[in-house]
Write a structure and sequence with these properties.
Elements (H helix, E strand, L loop, with lengths): L1 H24 L31 E3 L6 E8 L5 E8 L2 E2 L12 E8 L2 E6 L3 E4 L5 E10 L5 E4 L2 E2 L1 E8 L1
Parallel strand pairs: 1-9, 4-5
Antiparallel strand pairs: 2-3, 3-7, 5-6, 5-8, 8-11, 9-10
Length: about 160
């Protein structure tokens, strides 16, 4: 009768240790985490991205960049976003640097809340909440100011419906 309890104790000990090891190496938070599983999108609006330059417009220059959005289904609540651009180069190495005409990155907003930056033409939007949403993408200079043509921001919106 003692052997089964000994094996049970050994199994619990090593199983618990293995579970904590997997959680620690996967980046899981073991304390202070949020239990609101309905909030699948992280709000970046409170983060400091180099000052208040997000609302500032920078004239893009010529030729003017063009922006087009396409969504592709990737599971029940995920979508792959293609950010089609012309006359624009994604420039991850130049981020936080000075404005260079035709270079920069994109900012993604879901229902008006900034959720990510894009440094290339493809982004995966994972675990979107069920419902109808508006995805807005802006083209931004390396200094994070929003690019514009004649004072009109370069941005595009697309509807996202998750059932």
């Amino acid at each position: 009768m003692a052997k089964p309890f000994a094996f049970l104790g050994i199994g619990l000990f090593f199983g618990t240790g293995l579970g904590f090891l997997i959680a620690a190496t996967s980046g899981a938070q073991l304390e202070g985490h949020d239990h609101d599983h309905g909030a699948a999108v992280h709000d970046h609006s409170a983060h400091d991205h180099g000052g208040s330059t997000h609302a500032t417009l920078t004239e893009a220059g010529t030729p003017a960049p063009m922006l087009d959005l396409t969504l592709h289904a990737d599971g029940a609540q995920s979508r792959n976003l293609h950010i089609g651009v012309e006359n624009f180069t994604f420039d991850p190495e130049g981020v936080n640097g000075p404005h260079m005409p035709g270079h920069g990155h994109a900012h993604l907003y879901l229902n008006g809340i900034k959720i990510a930056r894009a440094y290339g033409p493809w982004m995966q939007l994972d675990a979107l909440p069920v419902g109808s949403h508006e995805l807005r993408v802006t083209l931004n200079a390396n200094d994070h100011t929003q690019l514009a043509v004649g004072g009109v921001p370069i941005e595009a919106t697309i509807a996202v419906v998750i059932e």
